[in-house]
Input
Amino acid sequence: MLVRATSISRHGKAAALAGAGLVAAGLAMQADPLFGATTEAVKISEAWVPPAQQAGGDLPLLMTIKNEADIADTLLRVRCPVANFAEKHIVDRGEGAPAMRAVPAIPIAANSTIVLKPDGYHVMLLQTRQTLTEGETFTCTVVFQRAGTIETEVHVSRSPS
Output
């Protein structure tokens, strides 16, 4: 029984030291201006989806992303309450007809603007949970590697606002 208690104690010490290291690393990342979670350098505008007359379908989420930082960023994830999933896509124009292909991330070059559109990089909202009527709005969470999390209002429209 004593051996077991010593074993737990050693693991407890290792866990405590590992936890302290993670806290220190987290504090260091917050202090690093390149890692920061600020959103001043990345701005999202003209976020929209087309109307959907029934739930369960897939819709493109289109938007303009402006990166005013001197360093590139990456769109990692999108979460929207109107869909079960969101995937990042690019249209591949290799051999044959253009095809949509899922990508792990969307690069955003330094000091640049990228327009997410159906024939290039875009986000697909998969398995919509509800109908979407023109004029409605909802909020999506967009997560970037460097800029962190940005909440953006999405308009339901037949074209960009």
Observations:
- The helical segments are 2-31.
- The chain has one helix and ten strands.
- The first helix runs from residue 2 to 31.
- The first strand starts at residue 42 and ends at 49.
